[in-house]
């Protein structure tokens, strides 16, 4: 953001009409390229890590990480060339690394989104609410994955169409902000995944486990059990054990499963 503001202010206000100043690229241009590449790599690594945690697929994860590194390398090379050749007449020297950077940014975003969508489509549930949550996760993944790719492709097309124009720079100023917004969107919507995960796992509990959980729920006086994964072995793990003391698991004689024998008097 500082690099963007400095560029606009110095070119259009402080040195407005100064043709000699306008012939060069200054510290804010390589700073913009470097910091944008870091922001993009962080956002993409977050999503690649999410894919790894979901699938444990080493091969696909390695490919995604490789794409991220190639895109970051292209950006760093572009920034270094701008530092070495700051004059606008030498802008063509950055064609290959800049093309590599922008193209790989788009490929990386699309690849991560595609991998996540394919994996999410494998998750099936007979419960309508769970299917709806999965569809929401898929839609969110597509939206956040294609946003950065769209801007990167727009910058690449504008650059290849006219390497002497600054229209490319104007579009490129948006790409870092887009990655920040998509990153925040993924962080803010994590509750969707937690709700779906807890709901899907709870639906697989056998009747005895459900009844035991109901007794615990009533004895504690609470009906909120978000984030409790229940596995087919009927083991129940609670994320916040401090809320359930040992005494809270005592069963009230008046409570129990429908098929339980009547309590002894």
Automatic annotation (TrEMBL):
<dbReference type="InterPro" id="IPR045339">
    <property type="entry name" value="DUF6534"/>
</dbReference>
<feature type="transmembrane region" description="Helical">
    <location>
        <begin position="98"/>
        <end position="120"/>
    </location>
</feature>
<feature type="transmembrane region" description="Helical">
    <location>
        <begin position="141"/>
        <end position="161"/>
    </location>
</feature>
<feature type="transmembrane region" description="Helical">
    <location>
        <begin position="167"/>
        <end position="187"/>
    </location>
</feature>
<keyword id="KW-0472">Membrane</keyword>
<feature type="compositionally biased region" description="Basic and acidic residues">
    <location>
        <begin position="209"/>
        <end position="221"/>
    </location>
</feature>
<feature type="transmembrane region" description="Helical">
    <location>
        <begin position="59"/>
        <end position="86"/>
    </location>
</feature>
<feature type="domain" description="DUF6534">
    <location>
        <begin position="106"/>
        <end position="191"/>
    </location>
</feature>
<protein>
    <recommendedName>
        <fullName>DUF6534 domain-containing protein</fullName>
    </recommendedName>
</protein>
<feature type="compositionally biased region" description="Polar residues">
    <location>
        <begin position="198"/>
        <end position="207"/>
    </location>
</feature>
<dbReference type="Pfam" id="PF20152">
    <property type="entry name" value="DUF6534"/>
</dbReference>
<keyword id="KW-0812">Transmembrane</keyword>
<feature type="transmembrane region" description="Helical">
    <location>
        <begin position="26"/>
        <end position="47"/>
    </location>
</feature>
<feature type="region of interest" description="Disordered">
    <location>
        <begin position="198"/>
        <end position="227"/>
    </location>
</feature>
<feature type="region of interest" description="Disordered">
    <location>
        <begin position="244"/>
        <end position="265"/>
    </location>
</feature>
<keyword id="KW-1133">Transmembrane helix</keyword>
